[in-house]
From TrEMBL:
<dbReference type="Pfam" id="PF00150">
    <property type="entry name" value="Cellulase"/>
</dbReference>
<dbReference type="InterPro" id="IPR001547">
    <property type="entry name" value="Glyco_hydro_5"/>
</dbReference>
<keyword id="KW-0732">Signal</keyword>
<feature type="domain" description="Glycoside hydrolase family 5">
    <location>
        <begin position="83"/>
        <end position="379"/>
    </location>
</feature>
<dbReference type="InterPro" id="IPR052066">
    <property type="entry name" value="Glycosphingolipid_Hydrolases"/>
</dbReference>
<dbReference type="InterPro" id="IPR017853">
    <property type="entry name" value="GH"/>
</dbReference>
<keyword id="KW-0326">Glycosidase</keyword>
<protein>
    <recommendedName>
        <fullName>Glycoside hydrolase family 5 domain-containing protein</fullName>
    </recommendedName>
</protein>
<comment type="similarity">
    <text>Belongs to the glycosyl hydrolase 5 (cellulase A) family.</text>
</comment>
<feature type="signal peptide">
    <location>
        <begin position="1"/>
        <end position="18"/>
    </location>
</feature>
<keyword id="KW-0378">Hydrolase</keyword>
Amino acid sequence: MMRITKLASLFTALLLVACNEPSSDKQNNISETLPRLHAETGERAGIYDEFNREVLLRGVNYTSLGDYYQAHPDLPAAVEPRPDDFARMASLGFNVVRMIVHWSLLEPTRGELNQAYIEKIREQVNAAAQQGLYVVLDMHQDAWGKYIATGDDEVCLPPFQPAIGWDGAPAWATITDGLSTCRVALRELSPAVTQAFTNFWLDRDGIQSALVETWARFAAEFAANPAVAGYDLLNEPHPGFLLGVSELFLSGSFYDRAIEAIRAAEAGVVGGFSHIVFFEPTVDWSAFGATLPPRNGFTADSNIVFAPHLYADSISVFPLSIEQGYQLADTAARSLGTAFWSGEWGWFGDPENNDAKLREYARFEDEYLIGGAWWVWRQACGDPHSLNESGGDIPGDQLALLINGCPGDIELGMVPEYARTLSRAYPRAAPGRLVSLVADIDSGAVEVSGTTEAPGTLELWLPERIGKPQIKGGTTPVVKNIPGGYLVQVTVTGDYAVSVTATP
């Protein structure tokens, strides 16, 4: 039965792509300076560009295209894209943005893709590419969707309490079977949310198949676009009432179906190519620091990356250290034969108090030679995250990477502690394989080593606080001044070591 379902999904994806193939003009309206990326599994597990350079994708999450529940009538739930957003990200040395999109806006009516929304996404992907930023398109959800919220006619008896809506699925895909929307503390601890996900894993009324088909049609729109690094298939999926089974088997089955449909869609577009698929464990990982990942071998596709959210010693409720969080992610990725990438990480509250933890996280990010995306660039005053903390009242200023003044979503600059650590030096692309990376956050200095069989160009980002860069190692260095810092290119071969320090 499962194989028949997969074949049916694949056939449907091909048919939909054939009927809705994007025009080549739309596909090619992009920056041509970004090389195509792909992932490898096994001994060379990692992310690479078309020049056989290992790539670290480091950047930030971006919610401006999101479709969030609006809990306060006077506070928009998302801030519209602003013209300088991507230029400011680039000035911190970022080379990727995890762009939140929502199924509820992609397919508000079953079977009909919202082309106006797709064009808005395409516009922002192209704008990011013009600033040298790759995009990971993230099918985001929290607590299933905006159509699960406690109404005035529902009474929540202790220990339950009313729940605001969140984001994700369209109304037609929200099947709660009348269970209570009330929650116990966390948004995920709601019978209605749990049942909605249970029905998704069981493909009730074909809703999982519908998302598979939507992914195929959506991926076809970007199949020939090198600025799209890849697709994050579903943000922090809930295990539903099928604990253990959903983590090990049902999530992997959905991912496999979606990957097959996406690959068929990419192959059906002129100039289309295989993009990286980022797949996540269930939301238990973010809450507890680890959970069961999908079983090894859930897909035969090798262009995949494990993408847990590393919130240990941040919002995870278990007392795990940052180092233990990395160890667990690395162990799970090795069991799957993939690299890992932290699609979300961050600290909340007083930035000064969290600065030491942030720096420790950065040290391990360098030690493990990975990338990730900080949560989040800007948080709207009416975002459910803001209102959940304020109890529905108008919240105070929101400290994301940017400080957002409330009410009014007024720009108040960057949080300096966050910006300093996130803008530290790193290799954007390293020939062959990276071996080690040590970055000094305060001075901007960096030491990188790697190994490559053929000569290639090592590309480094340096923050402007380093002053005049002094480069040791490699040959024919080229230093380019860009807003916020420098791009350094050095030719390397064999076992190489390159260090950059400031002028004494």
